[in-house]
């Protein structure tokens, strides 16, 4: 029985090593992702990611966007914070992990900065596109960190 226990521990250890991500995180190319169902403001969601050595997720391609969306599927594709913001300067979109902002599947008519919206939510509307939203809204979020 003790040997079985050791073997199981070894298998768990090996699966973590091969995956390169902490338990519960999903590997997508060279990053680990975690869907956080607890609704928080954008800033609190980012601070929560930081506490785990991560940032709110940046998104750089349609395939990445789809894979990150799939992490929200079990929860019914709720509107979810990702790491884009134009808070420092209106209309200049930045990722808070410092990567370049070149891909953005905005919903039609977005970003509209309606009453000063500076943070990006994904899964907006029927086509689950991106919308700029007031950063103080409480939403689930997706964290990401390098493998
Ligand atoms: Ca804005
Ligand atoms: Ca908007």
Describe this structure in words.
It is a single chain. The chain contains 3 helices and 8 strands. The longest helix is centred in the N-terminal third of the chain and has 18 residues, at 2-19. The chain has one domain (23-146): Mannose-Binding Protein A, subunit A (Mannose-Binding Protein A, Chain A), CATH 3.10.100.10. The protein is elongated, with a radius of gyration of 17 Å. The chain is of the alpha+beta class and 147 residues long.
Record the SSE blueprint.
Elements: H1 2-19, E1 26-28, E2 31-40, H2 42-50, E3 55-56, H3 62-71, E4 80-85, E5 94-95, E6 119-124, E7 129-133, E8 139-146
Antiparallel strand pairs: 1-2, 2-8, 3-8, 4-5, 4-6, 6-7
The chain binds calcium ion (2 copies).
**CATH class type:** Alpha Beta
What strand line-up does the widest sheet have? Answer: 1-2-8-3
Largest sheet: number of strands, sense, barrel closure: 4 strands, antiparallel
Anisotropy-based shape: elongated
How much beta, percentage-wise? 25-35%
Please give the domain count: 1
Which architecture name does CATH use? Roll
**Residues in helix, %:** 25-40%
Radius of gyration (CA) equals 17 Å
Low-confidence stretches: none
Q: Tell me the CATH superfamily.
A: Mannose-Binding Protein A, subunit A
Total beta strands:
8
Helical region count?
3
- Category by helix and strand content: alpha+beta
Oligomer: single chain
Could you tell me the mean pLDDT? 93
Q: Give the N-to-C terminal Cα separation.
A: 34 Å
Q: How do the SSEs run, as a string of H and E?
A: HEEHEHEEEEE
């Amino acid at each position: 029985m003790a040997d079985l226990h050791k073997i199981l521990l070894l298998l768990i250890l090996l699966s973590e090593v091969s995956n390169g991500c902490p338990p519960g995180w999903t590997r997508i190319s060279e990053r680990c992702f975690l869907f956080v169902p607890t609704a928080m403001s954008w800033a609190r969601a980012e601070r929560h990611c930081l506490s785990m050595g991560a940032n709110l997720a940046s998104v750089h391609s349609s395939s990445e966007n789809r894979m990150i969306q799939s992490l929200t599927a079990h929860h019914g594709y709720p509107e979810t914070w990702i790491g884009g913001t134009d808070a420092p300067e209106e209309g200049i979109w930045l990722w808070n992990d410092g990567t370049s902002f070149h891909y953005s599947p905005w919903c039609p008519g977005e970003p509209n900065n309606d009453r000063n919206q500076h943070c990006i939510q994904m899964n907006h509307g029927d086509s689950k596109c991106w919308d700029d939203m007031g950063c103080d809204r409480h939403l689930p979020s997706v964290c990401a960190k390098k493998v």
